[in-house]
Amino acid sequence: MGKRLPDAIGASVAAHYGYALSDATGRARTIDQAAPERWKVCFQKRGELPNSVILGVVRTEETCPARWIDET
């Protein structure tokens, strides 16, 4: 995907979806939601709750991994 995290969050909110964030590398890094511009979305999947999504993200300067190593 490569979408900027602020854009993905905005789209989720506009669609009335809840969202969760996950480090797509599997390294379980803390994602600073106060600075979403530092992250980009590589993957997205349906969340556990109705009308929710989980966004797999990496730092903007990183390349998206070939597959999502989901630790959520």
Explain the overall architecture.
By secondary structure, this protein is of the alpha+beta class. The protein has one domain (3-59). Helix content is 14%, strand content 33%. Strands 1-3-4-2 form a four-stranded mixed sheet, with helices on one face. A hairpin with a 5-residue loop joins β3 (39-46) and β4. The two termini are 19 Å apart. The mean pLDDT is 92.
Features:
alpha+beta; 4-stranded mixed sheet; 72 residues; single chain
Query: Strands across the major sheet, in which order?
Result: 1-3-4-2
Going by helix content, strand content and strand pairing, the class is alpha+beta
**Uncertain regions spanning at least 5 consecutive residues:** none
Which sequence of SSEs, written as H and E, runs from N to C? EHEEE
- The number of domains is 1
Strand content: 25-35%
Name the helicity range: 10-25%
State the major sheet: 4 strands, mixed
The end-to-end span amounts to 19 Å
Mean pLDDT equals 92
Task: Count helical runs.
Answer: 1
Instruction: Note the overall shape.
Output: globular
Count of individual beta strands: 4
Radius of gyration: 11 Å
Set down the secondary structure blueprint:
Blueprint: E1 3-4, H1 5-14, E2 18-23, E3 39-46, E4 52-59
Q: Summary?
A:
The protein is 14% helix and 33% strand.
